[in-house]
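New to this. Help decode both lines:
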Amino acid sequence: MRTDSHASDTGILLNAFAMNCVAHQSSGLWRHPRDRSGDYCRLDHWLGLARTLERGLFDGVFLADVTGVYDVYQGGPDAAIRAAMQIPTNDPYLLVPAMAAVTEHLGFGVTGSIPYEPPYAFARRMSTLDHLTAGRIAWNVVTGYLDSAARGIGKSRQTEHDTRYEIATDYMNLMYKLWEGSWEDGAVVRDRSAGIYADPTRVHEIVHHGPYFDLEAIHLCEPSPQRSPVIFQAGSSPKGQAFAAAHAECVFIGAPDATIVRSLRDQAEAFGRSGSDLKIFALVAVVVDETDAAAKALLEDYGRYALPEGALALMSGWTGVDLSRFGMDERVENVSSQAIQSAMSSIGSRTVREWGRSLSVGGAARVVAGAPDTVADQLEGWVQETGVDGFNLAYTVLPECFEAFVDLVVPELQKRGAYRRAYEAGTLRRKLFGRGDRLPADHPAARYRAGGAG
């Protein structure tokens, strides 16, 4: 385990991994009689989740999102629609203010896909959320991977994989200029007697003429607590890793194999970011009960409601490869596509049938099942073996999977000194890194700060 990790000070970091839809990673578990994921259109569903996670002292809720439908499998969207696999899906951003209103410390990581977010409007949206959450917002930067999403904005297909990261670099530089450079520190004076809310000499028009974006405008929002949100990124291709090394503060690794996770973590650090500047989250799904036998029975119970076809629709979308073209007992490996290039290698060598079965409960996550001490042993062992700082916890059956984790696993981790007993005050960035609210001075955003702000 890395000795320079902030996790050694505050314990294991935890995010709930969720999506504003019915089936996110686990295909078919919405059919379980105790599952309430179908209530995703109800606000009380999300408020209850937020309260549970804050009670469990989670760092945040990580809201995935996708623009487009999984229509690669069998050449159309029918399998995904039948299984509710990430369709229907609602806007994740609108959940954040409501969840923030019933919590004080919980962070909110929201996925935003660069091809589908106009930069000027997106900069204002993120600043607004940072204000409304008192500095608890994070952005999971993605570059898209579905041709169906590209067709939704009038393109015939996704832009080539590596070019998407070149576009993303230009986009990030524009974001930093708006968030960090348009308003100086101290520009907002709120002088009631003089009738001056902000000093116009300290508010600057941003001029950006990059290879992909052009803008000449003043950022519409006054400086928010973090200015730039905490930056998450999950790319593991060479281009994705280089992008993460330049921009990301947190990297999300979705692979069930410890060797792969360790390799991806080492690669992320090899690109130039140190452990003190980078937090690594691995994907896990936890099934916990009072005893190992009860947890095993619970996992088997969940499996009876799985819909492997939905999982194969998801995997086909991730890889860009129609898995229906292969026999159920055939292995499909080393396939290059313009979708998520690392998807097959990160999940491992399996037959199509094995993918459909294993991805149905927990998705691409490592599934940990057992009594509280067994789960704690595995989570601590995973941290020691791979060097990650914490986990994105994928849901299985809602809300019981998170409630059980908070009630059973959190106390066990606390007893071992492996998890916090109280929140620290401050913004999400301050909580994660134990330092200031702003991106550090050696981050690329810092060069765009107005008025020499540090």
